[in-house]
Amino acid sequence: MAKYFINKILLALLLTLLVSCNANFDVKTQKESDGTSIKGNINLTGDIKQAEEYLQLAEKYYKSKDYESAIENYNKAIEVNPGMVSAYVNLGMAYDKIGNYDDAESSFNKALKIAPENAATFYQIGNYYESKDDCDNAKDYYKKAIDSKSEYEQAYISLANCYYKGEELNLAIDTYKKALKLNHENPQTHNNLGNTYYHKGDYTMAAESYQTALEYDPGNSNASKMIKMANEKIVMDVNNNN
């Protein structure tokens, strides 16, 4: 009986301690040999706040192009909160900036282990590959982002941009149109669609797309210039056919 009451007292003390620490549990404890948590980690609120502070400091260093200091603080954020996906992604980008490509790829893979279905993570990695003019890998990650989040407008736009760069014009047109179904009032998407039609030689559709871009953004300089060129091409085609 005494042992029973002692156990109850110990349990009560433990619960009191957890409440006083403002604990925030995720039931995420399984770790791999490299220290990466497959599903995240258990953290106290204070740890999460500290990790965010390291992350913000790292981002300041990154913006000032002090990539070594950024890497140091991203790693500190991860040490405090191993489940911080954005820290792994940004760490990978910082490693890339100093030419450490193996560690960059490793950081991206760790982010994907923690959040294997996270659309934003796929999109950020896609941006990374596109910035390196590796549109084949970029397209794969943009597609994964869309698979995870079917209404991801910016992923459709970025995917279409990659198709355009690769001269896959019909795919680019179809993908820009999918983005416009999600947000018909985006002038830049109409502008990009116009560029694609123009590059394809469909000047009538190009002019229509540029006109729509100007309706939503009258100050769009590219659309203003290109609509004139498209209309000139239309007139030339009409004269040549007469």
What do you see in this structure?
This protein has a two-stranded antiparallel ribbon. Helix content is 75%, strand content 2%. Helix 4 (85-97) runs parallel beside helix 6 (119-131), helix 9 runs antiparallel to helix 10 and helix 10 runs antiparallel to helix 11 (203-216). The longest helix has 21 residues, at 221-241. It is built from 12 helices and 2 strands. The termini are far apart. By secondary structure, the chain is mainly alpha-helical.
What is the topological layout?
Blueprint: H1 2-20, E1 23-24, E2 43-44, H2 45-63, H3 67-80, H4 85-97, H5 101-114, H6 119-131, H7 135-148, H8 153-165, H9 169-182, H10 187-200, H11 203-216, H12 221-241
Antiparallel strand pairs: 1-2
Keywords:
242 residues; mainly alpha; two-stranded antiparallel ribbon; 12 helices; elongated; disordered N terminus
Distance between the termini: 106 Å
Radius of gyration: 25 Å
Beta fraction: under 5%
Order of helices and strands: HEEHHHHHHHHHHH
Number of strands: 2
Question: Short description, anyone?
Answer:
Helices cover 75% and strands 2% of the residues. It has helices at 2-20, 45-63, 67-80, 85-97, 101-114, 119-131, 135-148, 153-165, 169-182, 187-200, 203-216, 221-241; strands at 23-24, 43-44. The protein has a two-stranded antiparallel ribbon with strand order 1-2.
